Amino acid sequence: MARLVIASNRTAAPGESTAGGLAVALREALTERGGGLWFGWSGETHDSESRGVRLISEGNIDYALADLSEREYEGYYLGYANRSLWPVCHYRIDLARFDDEAFETYAQVNRRFGGLIHGLLRPGDRVWVHDYHFFLLGQELRNAGWRGRIGFFHHIPFPAPEVFTALPQHHRLARGLADFDLLGFQTQRDTRNFTRYMVEHHGAHHLGDGRLAVFDRTIEARAFPIGIDPAEIVAFATSESGRNDADRLSRMLADRALVLGVDRMDYSKGLLQRIQAFGSLLDEHQDLRGHVTFVQIAPPSREGLYAYQELREELDRLSGRINSNYSDLDWTPIRYLARGYPRETLAGLYRKARVGLVTPLYDGMNLVAKEYVAAQDPEDPGVLVLSEFAGAAEQLSAALIVNPYDIPTMAEAIHRGLTMPLEERRERWQELNRAVTENDIARWRRDFLAALDAHPGSEDD
Ligand code: GDG
C-alpha cells in the first residue's frame, strides 16, 4: 500500500497540546496505512528566518516539523489565513483584511513548505493536504517536480463564488487549487459552490462524476462529510473523570435543567446570538427563571487578532448584562467559561445537558454537534438545537433546526427542547445517532483515500 504523507498546519506530534478529534483521526489514518509521514508547523516562531525540518518518530509515524519566523507567522498564519481566508469562507467579508504583503508571505510559506515536503517524498507516496492554510501547497509540490497524486480536504465552508471572488488573489488561489487531483469538501453545498466557481470564473468543463477539466488538468471535487469516533465519545462520557466532572456541575445546578454550548471562541460560532436567544427565553418564559442554567464553554482562540478580542469583550458584556438582570441569590442563569476542558469533561457535560446548542452563523461541519449526539444516554437523551448553516445540518435533520439570526425562534426551539416528551426525544436521537454512527471518522478517511487511490494515476505512480 502506498505510503501516506499528510500536511496540515498543526500536527499531533508527541507533546503537542493541540491534539483534538481531527488530530486523532489523522493519526489513525496514518496508523491504518501502516504508518507514514506527517508534516506541519511546529508551533514555534523565531525572530530570524528559519529553514529545515525537525524529524520525530513515534510508532510507525514520522513527524516533520517546521518552524515559522515571526514575519511568516504574522503574514501567513494571522494575516492571510486567518484575517482574509477564514472570514471570507465564513461569509464575513466585513471582517476580512486584504493585504498583498500578507498574501505574498502566505505564498512564500506554501513554497518553502512545498520544497521541504518534496525533499521527504518517495515515488508512489499519496499526499493528503489539509485546509485553507495550504491552498497553494499542491502547486508548489508540482513546481518542485512532484507528479504523484495529491488530495486536498477543505475543513471550512467554501462560499458562494460571489463571495470568494472578493479575495483579490482568488485567481492565484484557483490556479493553485487546480494542482490537486482530488478536492474534498464537507458538504454538497460547498462542493457545488466550488464547482460553480471553477465553471463560472475559470471556464471549467464538467466531465461527469464530479470531475472537472480546468487549467489543462482533470480534477475531481466531491463531498466527504467529516465525522467523529462515537465509541470514543461514549467511553469519555461514561469514564470516571467524565462522570465526576458532570457530578461537580450537577451539584452547582441542583435540579435545574442544563443548556450547553461548547465552541472555540470564534465569531463564526454565533455565540452572541445564542446568548441573546437564552436571554429572550427568560424574558418570555417567566416560569423557567430559576429552573434552567446555560453553560457556555468557549476556549479563546486566535487572541492576536482584533476581531477575536472584540468578540470576547462583547461576550463578557452581554452575558454580564443578562446575569445582572436575572440572577438570584442561589441562581446564575449563564455560566460562561472562557477556558478549555479535557475531552472527558466535555463528553460528561454533553451527556448531562438537556439541550445542546450548536448554532453557528456558518460552519464547515461542526464536530461538537456530532459529539453531543454520541454522548447521550439512549434511555434519556437530550435535544440538539442545530443551525441550518452548520454543515452538520445536511446529515442531522432530526435535530431542531434553527436560523441562528432569528433570536425569538431560537429561544422557542430551546423551550421546545426543554419541554419535549421523552418519546419524541428518543425517536429524534435514534435517527441522529444513526447518522453520526454511519458517517463516522473511519468512513471519512477511508472514502477519501479510496477516491484518491482510484484517481487516474500520475506518472510517478
Ligand atoms: C474546523 C471547522 C469542522 C472544543 N472545546 C474544547 C475542545 N473542543 C473540541 C470539540 C471538537 C473540536 O474542538 C471543535 O471542532 P468543530 O468542528 O466544532 O469546530 P472548529 O474548531 O472550528 O473546526 C469545522 C472541523 O474543522 C473538522 O473538519 O467541523 O467546521 O471550523 O472536537 O470537542 N477540545 C478540548 N477542550 C476544549 O475545551 N480538548
Distance between the termini: 12 Å
Number of helices: 16
Query: Stretches where pLDDT falls below 50 for ≥5 residues?
Result: none
Bulk shape: globular
Strand order of the largest sheet: 3-4-2-1-5-6-7-10-9-8
**Total DSSP E strands:** 16
Amount of beta strand: 15-25%
The top-level CATH class of the largest domain is Alpha Beta
Integer tally of domains: 2
Small molecules bound in the structure, each named once:
GDP-alpha-D-glucose
How can the largest sheet be summarized?
10 strands, mixed
Mean pLDDT: 94
Structural class comes to: alpha/beta
In the CATH hierarchy, the architecture of the largest domain is 3-Layer(aba) Sandwich
* CATH overall fold name of the largest domain: Rossmann fold
The radius of gyration is: 23 Å
Describe the model.
- This protein is an alpha/beta fold and 461 residues long.
- It has 2 domains: 237 residues, Glycogen Phosphorylase B (Rossmann fold); 209 residues, Glycogen Phosphorylase B (Rossmann fold), CATH 3.40.50.
- Helices cover 44% and strands 18% of the residues.
- The chain is built from 16 helices and 16 strands.
- The strands form 2 sheets. A 10-stranded mixed β-sheet has the order 3-4-2-1-5-6-7-10-9-8, with helices on both faces. It has a 6-stranded parallel β-sheet with strand order 13-12-11-14-15-16, sandwiched between helices.
- Strand 12, helix 11 and strand 13 form a beta-alpha-beta unit.
- The chain is globular and about 70 Å long.
- The site of GDP-alpha-D-glucose has 22 residues, from helix 1, helix 12 and helix 13.
- The site of GDP-alpha-D-glucose (GDG) has 22 residues, from helix 1, helix 12 and helix 13.
